[in-house]
Amino acid sequence: MRTQVGIIGAGPAGLLLSHLLHLQGIESVVLEARSREQIESTIRAGVLEQGTMDLLTETGVGDRMKAEGALHHGFELAFEGKRRRIDLTALTGKSITVYAQHEVLKDLVAARVAAGGSLYFNVSDVSIADIDTEAPSIRFVHDGVEQTLMCDFVIGCDGSQGVSRATIPAARRNDYERVFPFGWFGILVEAPPSSDELIYARHERGFALVSTRSPNVQRMYFQCDPQDSVDNWSDDRIWAEMHARVDSADGQRLIEGRIFQKTIVGMRSFVSTTMQHGRLFLAGDAAHIVPPTGAKGLNLAVSDVRILAAALRAFYREDRTDLLDAYSETALKRIWRAEHFSYWMTRMMHRLDDASPFEQRLQVSELEHVTTSRAAATAMAENYVGAAVV
Ligand code: RFL
Ligand code: PHB
């Protein structure tokens, strides 16, 4: 088998890259370890930045997002018994859409299938060879048959547990990491929305987040011990915790409903540089992870592949290699901005067991500042909508 660009992983990064390349007349093949049903049903992110919304719309895969996603012009910060709004649109002219990641994936898979794109699901034993040459290749097993995909470029979009990152020689890699000593307990609830906008709450019992998925399904999270088990949490115990952290002094109460999914995720910040070696390029979670507090992970995957698609276009159309050579450096500017923002939001909003009472008062002071100073609120809003780096 031969193609121009071999892509490992059918997450947001891999599928969107394949779609963008197709629109530029560049061929690709996507190899995915899981089944189509699995990727189309795994619950993950929900917030799309303005730039992500615009790109999906401009490239013809934004119709369902527009029809079924919820456009939000702000969010609320709850702390010390009060709620204050960050007006994203007034501060930046931009907004966000709440639309589930797996719905974006369904739209991208449908577009690739309709265009006759090559997607292989359920592949195993993926390995990458000859990235130091102009003819790299990917070996994999599909339907019990070992195959070799010859290509011009290999793009590792295989997430944090993939094989691509380790293919870059250790001597060329620098990993930067911060593991947080807490996780998020996530629930999906059958209920109407409790709030028109997302609520990020700082409480002495720990952080909580109220998000949404649709008029009938709500997404909520609360800070927990990452080693805890969902089996220790009855529905009653979960609601008691959510009420304690989110209900406001003025009598606004969360609306309860049937909880139909419970998961615990750990939180870490991670950046691996370089993101390229020879003919191998990494994009999305394969190269970097953010804690979900800033809602940046999916959006960073999108911005990586936007840069990569433009660089590959310059290579094929204009015989230029400068954009490809600069890929890591270009992408890392936005990545480090998002890393800092996500880290900052995480440190400001969570209960930090290692923090002294002094540092806890600083958290509250910082929240007062970002919700009363227009300059500070604007900086937060620019980062949240993805406008802080152009
Ligand atoms: P993905 O989505 O992990 O996709 C990688 C794909 O590669 C496949 N794969 C392989 N395929 C072939 N061979 C191998 N050896 C392979 N190894 C792995 C995997 O099966 C998978 O299908 O990475 P990608 O494309 O880089 O996308 C990244 C995003 O998925 C991720 O950053 C976000 O979900 C993070 N995230 C959020 N991001 C946002 O922008 N906004 C949010 O609101 C948001 N909320 C979240 C989140 C992540 C969360 N979790 C579960 C970590 C909320 C949560 C709870
Ligand atoms: C979500 O709806 O899943 C969500 C929203 C905001 C975040 C993280 C996750 O910061």
UniProtKB/TrEMBL annotation:
NCBIfam families: PRK08243.1. Pfam families: FAD_binding_3. One of its GO terms (molecular function) is oxidoreductase activity, acting on paired donors, with incorporation or reduction of molecular oxygen, NAD(P)H as one donor, and incorporation of one atom of oxygen. Keywords: FAD, Flavoprotein, Monooxygenase, Oxidoreductase. Residues 2-341 form the FAD-binding domain. The keyword RNA-binding does not apply. This is 4-hydroxybenzoate 3-monooxygenase. Gene3D superfamilies: D-Amino Acid Oxidase, subunit A, domain 2 (3.30.9.10), FAD/NAD(P)-binding domain (3.50.50.60). PANTHER family: P-HYDROXYBENZOATE HYDROXYLASE, TRK SYSTEM POTASSIUM UPTAKE PROTEIN.
